[in-house]
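Dear colleagues,

For the upcoming journal club I promised to circulate an example of a predicted protein-ligand complex. I picked one with adenosine monophosphate because it came up in last month's discussion. The inputs are reproduced below in full, followed by the predicted structure.
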Amino acid sequence: MNVLLLGSGGREHALAWKLAKSPLIGQFYAMPGNPGIADVAEAVEGVPLSAHQTIVSWCQAHAIELVVVGPEAPLVAGLVDRLKEAGIPAFGPTAAAARLEGSKLFTKELCRENGIPTAAFARFSSAPEAAAYVRSTGAPIVVKADGLMAGKGVVVALNIEEAISAVEGVFAAGGQEVLIEEFMEGEEASLFCLVDGETVIPFGSAQDHKRAFDGDLGPNTGGMGAYSPAPVLTADLEAQAIREIVVPTARAMAALGAPYSGILYAGLMLTATGPKLVEYNCRFGDPECQVLMPRLDSDLLPILAAAATGRLAETEVKWSDRSALTVVYASRGYPGAHQTGTEIGGLEAANEVEGVTVFLAGTKKSGSKLLANGGRVLNVTATGETLQEARDRAYDAAARIKWSGGFYRQDIGWRALK
Ligand code: AMP
Ligand code: GLY
């Protein structure tokens, strides 16, 4: 099967690493890929992922039989719609189904109409009305902008002043509407499900660390580390979340004429009254994908192909009992301003540690040198019989990497190991 993978992050390196192991794979291309992905797939550079028609024509010219879309932006923008119109199977939802990530309001209304557990909410199209509401409810309270905000559209306000200034910020930035949510208390966990219409297959769980610094302090990032499985998401809680949240969502999307296809990533809050939905993403998590792939015993390619062609119900998925943990090695200064172009060494020594694979994210090659080329640069990933073993291996490997321009957290997994 000829496959094209879209994206250039650590998530895509993990997908490429796993897909390349498939005995079914034929020509394997990545657009644009990165130096890690280029070890297992042929890099196709110079085509922006927003150039949908160019991608469709390229797939036709290269007899592509499956397109795997890594990031959310092309999904929300309708790339899968264009590929399907051209008869090219693609893993990922159509634009109408990707609204589950693209529009928080769409998802909140869908939850309300279908009795799906989530934080109570109200929506306002003017700042004074929203401010009056905040004053009447009090804090803590959560203020959200609609649309794809790369994680930056959410303020968990601890007092009323902070909430009102967040509301004003949304409208000042050109927002038309603001969403005010009840503050949910509990531990967060991520649940991944493969979905194909009304078929839902659990596809692993994880927890990540969003803050930049040890102790879960500092600014929010795309994720500084993750581990799988998430011990807090017990088998009972996972079954409850699938029954009460994911399955009703899949049914509701099908009933709307926008059946979901692809991976549905549910961000859950495990509250005293059961799991509640925080948000959906329409793609694999980054770096959560990096801890799912090393635990997957099944061949990934036929699974993604089945989801893309409406045959998921016939598919079996096998997981190993091992745990996995990844440490993100980021450029100093991330998520703020940071230098790029600093040299990275020691990857071979890191990859020699038992159970370790270093996935590459924001990197580029200059001759034989590997250089940092982004905020999140390396994902030092390890498996182990236990989470503790995976963590020890990952940190042993991270210490072997020679990169003066980077930093990483020393406490990934602390919640699960405390
Ligand atoms: P989101 O982009 O919707 O996932 O929100 C980002 C983060 O804000 C989540 O991972 C939570 O930590 C927090 N958050 C969002 N909504 C709520 C809520 N209603 N109650 C408590 N925390 C929330
Ligand atoms: N690590 C969070 C995300 O991928 O959205």
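Two points we might discuss: The CA atoms of residues 208 and 226 lie 4 Å apart. The chain has four domains: 3-95, 120-182, 187-314, 323-417.

See you all on Thursday,
B. R.
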